Structure formats: structure tokens, C-alpha cells
Amino acid sequence: MKGRELNKLATRSLFSWWNYLIFFLVTSYVVGCSFLLFFAGMDISEAEVRQNALRTFGNVVFLSMLFCLLDGIRRKYTVELPVKRILEATRRITQGDFKARIQTIHGPDSRNEFDIIIENFNRMAKELSGIETLRADFIANISHELKTPLAVIQNYSTLLQAPALPEAKRIEYAKTLTSASRQLSDLITNILKLNKLENQEIFPEVQEYYLGEQLSECLLGFENIWEEKELEIDTELEEDIVIEADAELLTLVWNNLFSNALKFTEPHGKITVRLTGEEDWVVVKVSDTGCGMSPEVGKHIFDKFYQGDTSHTTQGNGLGLALVKRVIDIVDGEIRVESEAGKGSTFLVKLRRTGDETN
């Protein structure tokens, strides 16, 4: 109903009394001035003037009507039709049809303001369509991710209630419950962090610090994992590289990259961490000898909840690299992945360099 009312308001008659009055006044003024200038030096009797006055008035009325109709036709095709197209498309958008698009009126060489508005509208509709798709995917994925640990907790809680359950099984089930609850907690924490990052609710606290020391501390936090899997850790960290950034946010980046590398590397594999300084940038490379990924997987690896290797889905929730990408964007850095299926992956992070200090 509202859409019809808007279209009705946008539709005007070819003939408007208000426009006719304006054209009549303008035409009368122009004709009157022209007659005064033209006949100023001529000797014309009052009778002749009176005789032609009615005819002149009729001509003014006719010309005003003609101009009003021509202006109505011009407005119909140059203003009203584009406005009706835009209103119809906006009505469809408000009803949830994000596929609504408007065809431009003119070609690329003769665009006017309406064409620019239409192009911007189509761009906005495309962005909204993408956001809606992401929202739907997000809800579907988060529902699945929440159900998995909840199902584990429910099932193993039921098993623990068995009176004759052996002590060894009881301990095993309790560990499984702890692992599932930790997975659920990590998922909720990551969702909250990602939400804050995407809504600019986290403001970076910038400070200068040695990046090599931070990388070493983060890597040592996973010592028990690499020792358990008997992985070879190869580090080459250039000394005295100082950056100016939010240390807490970048800790999130390194922890996720290291966790990913350890998760996808089979026992007795190798993890390599490199830190080098370029002219204006600091480059961190984290490489592994894990399963790698195909180019198609690499295109989506920073998308929320995307997991290229489904065999490791129980070890993560697909939010880690989305968090990494958002943090890197906030600190105005760059990140990319180089990978080949079966040969491992390398994540390359570039951060702006603030200077070097020597002890």
C-alpha cells in the first residue's frame, strides 16, 4: 500500500495549473516587453492596439499551454519515469528482495545525475545482498557450531549418570565434557571479539615494542603441543625490530596463526617462523608442512566459519582466521596465504615499520 502511495505521489499529470500559471506570467511578461520595445518608435493608433489585444492575449494563452504541455512531457520522461523506477526498486528492497536492480537510462557517454543515482543504488543493493547472504550463512553456521558441543555435553552427561560406570570411563567422559565446554566457550569468545572488531568497538592501544619478543612468547605458549606431536620448530627472528601497534590485538593474530599451523601439521612435521624487516614494512611468515589447501579454499580461508579441511572441524570453529583478517585490517597491514594441497601453507603478514632500536 505504501509503495502505491509513493508511486502516486511521484506521478504527475502532463498538465499542471500551477505550471501553466507560471508559464502564462512569464510569456505575458516577455511578449509585453517585446511589444513595448518593438512599437516604441512606431506611430500606431489606439484602435489598432485594441483590435489586436485580444488576438495577442489568445496567443499568450496558447503559447503558455503549449509550453506547459511540452514541459510536462519532458518532465514525464526525464524525471518521473526514473523516479518511479527508483521508488519501485526501493520498495522491493524494503520488502527483502535484495536482487532488485535498476537499468540505467542513458549510455556511459551521456549519463546524467539519475544514472549516477541508479548506479549507486545498484551498488548498494549488491552490498546489501552480500550482507544478507553472510548473515544467513552466519546464523546457519553458528547454529551448527553451537549444536555440536552442546550435543556432546548432553550425551556424555547422560552417560556419566550410569551407576555402574567404571572410574576410567568416568574420567574419560569428564575430559570430553571439559573439552566440549572449552570449545563452546572459545566459540562464544571469538564471536564476541569478532563482533566488537567488526563494529569498531575495540579501539587499538598503540605502543612501541619489540615484535621478535612477542612472537617468541606466543610461540612458547604452544610448547606442549609441538612437543606432543614431536614437531621441528625453526625460527629466524631478526633482532631489534620495533613496531608501533596494539600488542594485545597482534597477540590474537600470532596465536591464531601458530594454532592453525600446529593443528594442520602431522606429527614429526615442521613449523617455520620468519621475521624480517624491509624498508617500510615488517614481514612475518608462518609456514607449516601440513595438508595445505587448494586455490579455491585459499580464496575463502578468511571468511567466517569457513573450514577447508573438514577432517579438523572438531579442533576449531572457523573464526580464527576471520579474526586475524579483521585485526590486520584495523592495524592497516596486509595478509595473504600461499599454499599447495599436500605441501603445506605459508601465511605472510606485513605490518608498517616504525623504526629499529639497538640495545
UniProtKB/TrEMBL annotation:
InterPro entries tied to this protein: HAMP_dom (IPR003660), HATPase_C_sf (IPR036890), HATPase_dom (IPR003594), His_kinase_dom (IPR005467), HisK_dim/P_dom (IPR003661), HisK_dim/P_sf (IPR036097), Sensor_HK_Regulatory (IPR050736), Sig_transdc_His_kin-like_C (IPR004358)
Annotated HAMP domain residues: 77-133
The reaction(s) this protein catalyses: ATP + protein L-histidine = ADP + protein N-phospho-L-histidine
Limits of the Histidine kinase domain: 141-355
Keyword Flavoprotein among record annotations: no
GO terms, molecular function: ATP binding; phosphorelay sensor kinase activity
PROSITE patterns: HAMP, HIS_KIN
Annotated localization: Cell membrane
UniProt entry keywords in alphabetical sequence: ATP-binding, Cell membrane, Kinase, Membrane, Nucleotide-binding, Phosphoprotein, Transferase, Transmembrane, Transmembrane helix, Two-component regulatory system
Major subcellular site: membrane
Gene3D superfamilies in UniProt: 1.10.287.130, 6.10.340.10, Histidine kinase-like ATPase, C-terminal domain
Cellular component, GO, one term: plasma membrane
Topology versus the membrane: Multi-pass membrane protein
Enzyme Commission number: 2.7.13.3
Entry's transmembrane regions: 20-41
PANTHER family on file: SENSOR HISTIDINE KINASE RCSC, TWO-COMPONENT HISTIDINE KINASE
Protein's name according to its UniProt entry: histidine kinase
